[in-house]
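queue> holo job accepted (riboflavin)
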Amino acid sequence: MKNGTTPGIFFRVSIMATRNLSDYDANRVPSGEGMKFGMVVAEWNWEITGAMAQGALDTLIKHGVRKEHIEIETVPGSFELTMGGQLMIETGRFDAIILIGCVIQGETRHFDFICQGVTQGAVDLTLKYNIPVIYGVLTTENQQQALDRAGGKHGNKGDEAAVTAIKMADSVRRLRRL
Ligand code: RBF
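queue> job finished
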């Protein structure tokens, strides 16, 4: 289905989701000019999360967000992303918050508990504060799968989180103006 061609339906924003959002059409991303973003990055699995954070940062800037409108905080692990996100939201300075983490399956059930905690935490934050909280958290079976998604063969999920943040911030601005 082509955008805008369905009778009676007008897509104000071009649909651009594919299986791999890193393949997005950059021309169809709203401008990030004037938008402010907070990013919380887990230090655990830094090789992965650092690459994702860099990707997110580059992508925000590429789409017009000013460097001084991006603040980055690190937290020890993905479990702490919710708290970091909450602290950032409470400053009132941001249009959207990006959480970056990587949880890799180990031998114990920690994986499940951390994934569950941060996922529910992100949902709770976004609904409690009515602000986009973008879930840039990899949950993989092994390190290779994570590397593949942090600038490897499956793109960089940090880039995708940044695009999602801009799109959601744009949606909020447009809808609140209506
Ligand atoms: N944090 C991550 O971000 N990714 C992980 O893969 C990860 N694995 C962990 C495995 C174990 C056994 C433990 C105890 C912690 C792990 N953490 C991981 C850290 C976790 O998110 C949190 O920082 C700590 O549990 C302290 O609250």
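queue> The chain has five helices and six strands.
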